[in-house]
Automatic annotation (TrEMBL):
Protein name stated in the entry: peptidoglycan lytic exotransglycosylase
Catalytic activity: Exolytic cleavage of the (1->4)-beta-glycosidic linkage between N-acetylmuramic acid (MurNAc) and N-acetylglucosamine (GlcNAc) residues in peptidoglycan, from either the reducing or the non-reducing ends of the peptidoglycan chains, with concomitant formation of a 1,6-anhydrobond in the MurNAc residue
InterPro entries, alphabetized: 3D_dom, MltA, MltA_B, RlpA-like_sf
PANTHER family to which the protein is assigned, alphabetical: MEMBRANE-BOUND LYTIC MUREIN TRANSGLYCOSYLASE A
Domain of life: Bacteria
EC assignment: 4.2.2.n1
Species of origin: Rhizobium herbae
Domain Lytic transglycosylase MltA: 101-258
């Protein structure tokens, strides 16, 4: 491993006594339900398993905790914190994501013209068992045509009509920029004219490499690197409609969605861990290293935009992952759903300290003094 775990006391967690981890108890219960009724989460290379977490899951499901102090005491009873220390000396790093709300229509018209698509029948999963010679090893999806697997058409081809007429449209938005940012986030709440709501979540993608629009605009001198955010990118796209297609098509990756009901408007979408995200308390991590359902305390002196100017100090639960989330101390914070959550998420690019909460029964495996 290219990192070490350094045992710390709870008193050594900056801001621990001021945090309120109460919302995480409900999320632990949802993890327990998935692990016991569906299947355990895959164990990351660090080795903390769903079985290790089960005593905390069971306790969360049986105890009645209603105060911040009692919630902190719960985590102090069941977990031991370790600081993740990268051997290259670099700090951890956090970004943030959210669930957009997009006004849509079930049918297209002159205003609502830009579709969200379901997964096409000719898009297949690709791995080492069926990958043809010449197909980039990065591609996890491909197109099956006449018995032959090849590269799937990209964003430009799809937006120019490749999928038209196949009945794959879920709903239609007013703006292709709205659709694009739902692709970036991997989920959205769709709000229909009658006020009804539907949720869409990631189902598959074309397989092409993701290319960051903000990075492109910075390289072209269109946006200042010091102030780049989701909001500044959106503003630039809104201000330059004649250049929008060319800029967005630079990101060849295209996302397909599946539909889901909004069972609880207070919770986020069901993400990679197959449980609903807890707004403001869910973290996307590198699942090759970490296991879903593990708590992480995140501390960032420079991230002050989320907690009213105060440094970010929060206990989070690992419930998602992402292609850009790579490394032991790399995380993506879920800020919630809607425009305000988007505002909070938009500018987060901050160094941070990561403290992983290891279940006490497993802590001895990682405690090297």
């Amino acid at each position: 491993m290219d990192f070490d775990l350094q045992r710390v006391d709870f008193s050594g967690l900056p801001g621990w006594q001021d945090d309120n981890p109460l919302p995480l108890l409900a999320a632990l219960k949802r993890c327990r339900n998935h692990v016991t009724t569906v299947k355990p989460h895959r164990t990351g290379s660090l080795g903390v398993s769903s079985a290790d977490l089960m005593p905390a899951y069971e306790a969360a499901a049986t105890v009645d905790i209603r105060t911040e102090d009692a919630a902190r005491a719960f985590f102090e009873e069941h977990f031991a914190p370790f600081k993740i220390v990268r051997r290259d000396g670099k700090p951890g790093f956090v970004t943030a994501f959210y669930e957009p709300e997009v006004l849509v229509s079930a049918t297209p018209d002159e205003t609502f013209r830009f579709p969200f698509y379901r997964r096409p029948d000719d898009l297949i999963d690709v791995d080492d068992t069926n990958r043809p010679d010449g197909l980039d090893p990065y591609f996890a999806f491909g197109r099956l045509k006449d018995g032959v697997i090849g590269e799937y058409p990209d964003r430009k081809a799809i937006e120019q009509g490749f999928l038209a007429g196949r009945g794959l449209e879920i709903a239609y938005a007013k703006s292709k920029v709205d659709v694009f940012f739902a692709h970036v986030q991997g989920a959205a709440r769709l709000v229909f004219p009658d006020g009804s709501m539907k949720r869409i979540t990631y189902a598959a993608k074309t397989g092409h490499y993701f290319s960051a629009t903000g990075k492109l605009l910075i390289e072209r001198g269109k946006i200042d690197a010091a102030s780049v955010s989701m909001q500044s990118i959106r503003q630039w796209l809104d201000d330059h409609p004649n250049e929008t297609d060319e800029v967005l098509w630079h990101n060849r990756s295209f996302i397909f969605f599946r539909e889901a009901e909004v069972d609880d408007t207070g919770l986020g979408p069901v993400a990679a861990a197959k449980v609903a995200l807890e707004p403001g308390r869910s973290l996307a991590v590198d699942r090759l290293i970490h296991t879903f359902g593990v708590p992480f305390f995140i501390s960032s002196d420079s991230l002050t935009s989320i907690d009213s100017g105060r440094p970010f100090r929060r206990l989070m639960l690992a419930l998602d992952t992402g292609s850009a989330i790579v490394g032991p101390a790399r995380g993506d914070l879920f800020t919630g759903s809607g425009d305000e959550a988007g505002r909070l998420a938009g500018g987060v690019r901050n160094d941070a300290d990561f403290f992983i909460f290891v279940p006490k029964a497993a802590a001895a495996r990682y405690d090297h003094g």
